[in-house]
UniProtKB/TrEMBL annotation:
SMART domains: UDG, UreE_C
A GO biological-process term: DNA repair
One Gene Ontology MF term: metal ion binding
Residue span(s) of domain Uracil-DNA glycosylase-like: 35-181
Listed InterPro entries: UDG_Type-4/5, Ura-DNA_glyco_family4, Uracil-DNA_glycosylase-like, Uracil-DNA_glycosylase-like_sf
EC supergroup of this enzyme: hydrolase
EC numbers, comma separated: 3.2.2.27
NCBIfam families attached to this UniProt entry: UDG_fam4
Name of the protein this chain belongs to: Type-4 uracil-DNA glycosylase
Amino acid sequence: MEHQVGAERRLTRLGGRVRSCTRCGLSRTRTQVVFGAGSAEAKLVFVGEAPGRDEDLAGAPFVGAAGRLLTKIIESIGFRRDMVYITNILKCRPPENRNPLPEEIACCCPHLDMQLDIISPLVICTLGTFASQTLLGTTLPISSLRGRVWDCRGTMLVPTYHPAALLRNPGWKRRVWEDVQLLRRVYDDLVAGRIPRGALKAPLTPE
């Protein structure tokens, strides 16, 4: 309980600082910062790309159609949204939902790094190309990254398609289901101690 209170307090303080951030030009066009939401004690963290229009207005991540789909995905593997933590690479909405610029990612990544340090999850699930490439430091497309388990600075990471992309491409549903089933197996193995944290030295492809 003491650790939980400490993590919540640290996240709250960090959120306060991020909400006044002016590191990049997005601070001039946002409605508000979308810091993140969920449990400071979460063992599973979902990382998306950036807030959209609905999130920019609400000040919370994944609240639109893609967010409703993400909720269903989370529940399909036995979790509730309040059991996990959800955030994005960027904390401010890019105009017209354009792709994040490299300099915006560089400015915002320290915020995400601190979030992950505070929460210290067992597993990270990246949603889409930008989140996956950023955390893995690669230019490989999401189609090459998904379906495997990767190491992200000692934390296991499972990439999959962004829910917004899944809405546009419903034929990817089976692939996402396979990815989140893999995510659940990795989570269960870590919790049960069948694999130790930080044990992954190369990408793992399930049989």
